[in-house]
Model the fold of this input.
Amino acid sequence: MRKNREMKKKPDSSLEPPKKLEPQVEAEDEEKAATLPSDRRSKGGLLTLPFIIANEALEKVSSYGLAPNMILYLMKDYGMGVTKGQNLLFFWSAATNFLPLLGAFLADSYLGRFLTIALGSLSTLLGMIVLWLTAMVQKLRPAAACSSTQPPACAPVAAATSAQYSVLVSSFVLMSIGAGGIRPCSLAFGADQLDRKENPHNQRVLESYFGWYYASAAASVIVALTAVVYIQDRMGWKVGFGVPAVLMLISAALFIVASPLYIKRKSTRNLFGSFVQVLVAAFRNRHLPFPSNLSLYHSSKASPSKVPTAKLRFLNKACIIKKPEDVKADGLPTNPWDLCSVEQVEELKALIRVIPLWSTGIMISINISQSAFPFLQASSMDRHVTKSFQIPAGSFGMFTVIALTVWVVLYDRAILPLASKVRGKPVRLSTKTRMGTGIFLSAMGMLFSGVVEHVRKREAAKQGLLNNPHAVVAMSAMWLIPQHCLNGLAEAFNAIGQTEFYYSELPKSMSSIASSLFGLGMAVANLLASVILSTVDRNTGGGDGKESWVSSNINKGHYEYYYWLLAILTMINLVYFVACSWLYGPCLEGGSRVSTDEGESVLLLTDRVSTPATPLGVLG
Done:
């Protein structure tokens, strides 16, 4: 088996050695097999998993624990208005969702997964330390004046200086860079330690690892949204920011200490570079006529595609052989920027085809990223469960995670098996049906959020609290749970449906792209959400003292109008989705994927659910 694996690693497996060399090749392989397997067996395996899973779990606890209360820190300690604070969080979220794409590129092309994760862990740790220092060192944040009340209420007396603001933003940047290194690589790096084709139980071992990995991820998010947020509420920012920093220190130390135990695989082909090559080659060959002789299309011998499809035909010119010298004796192109393979062209076509449907998921991500407003709603309502215990305002996001998790388990373990038993055949909802259902549920979540806010504001007016933005209205915050549950169900349908759609429609070689598209959508959504929020604030406020819809005074603003605007935009997006779905045509629905890729698809779509499942969407 060792010999077979090494033969597969050769640049061109289609070139067979002459018969007379076979004994020599066998002898060389046997010699390698005698030395390499023992070294390989000494690395990787189950022993490494606690270090990898602990690294990811502690990073999630640390990062997700910072996000829920961050708007409160920005408003109270830095004197930011809700619009400016939320926009800063939008940009932080956009960077955190986009940089994993860059991290995946660097890991696959240059650094390898271990070094990328290690550098990411150190960057995240440094960012958390800087954020903790902003709470510890008064000079790093605006000066504050405190009242004589008990406990004293403190508020900044001046805006943050450029230096203070830069320190704060640098902490966010460092944490985003760290997430870009850890999140795209951690899961696959763990699989590298277990993926041994010679093991007859290899697939079962991988599936077990995937299950434990995501169980730890889900548990980490719950701990972050409860324990860490509670510590911040009860013990203040110094302890509340210090705890995540300590956890991240432990996370980085555990991962790096186990370095000698890991299997560290080398980088592989870079798909992003391949796409650029196709575009450049197609442009350079734009004046070439399409050949009548189909053998003039270049394809690798191992590729099942010998002729390009007719869709997006202009890209086919990238794989036209102009002269025999364009192809070397080993079957590779002389200049990959002048000639690409049919497989490369079809990969790019597949990506272009899914972009319209990918864009329909941006609106639901915009809704998810509205972290400040649900937090401010919860802060202004009665959050008591008992007389002595109240749920922290930042912890209400756990209901989104709980609803998502419960639905996924019920759907997979109860609803589908029961429906299949009743129908007498396998039953499942198509990926596009689930995506559309998720968009509709997201619109309903925004609609319900607006209704609850309308009632809350009416109660605030009755109780004479309109001029007191910090007052607690005599209305139970448990009314916020349905909107969080609707958001969780929307994520369960749309996020899983999206990622499964990408995996079924894109070639197997593009699995890394499929796993990244949802995060890219979140990044774009964060930027668009900032544009929408700024536009609403600018056009609904006035210089005559008129309050903006998104005023920092929740009792004078009109958050319900903002929610309903998002609901209307989401319904328009649903119509757009139906049109894109109809134009796309029927889906493959995963029928062409082999068992190993199905396992990978399930694990990666689960990661896409667990990551943006938080209502903050900041660290997805």
Notes: The beta strands are 144-146, 154-156, 381-382, 473-476. Confidence is low (pLDDT under 50) at residues 1-38, 147-151, 590-620. The first strand starts at residue 144 and ends at 146.
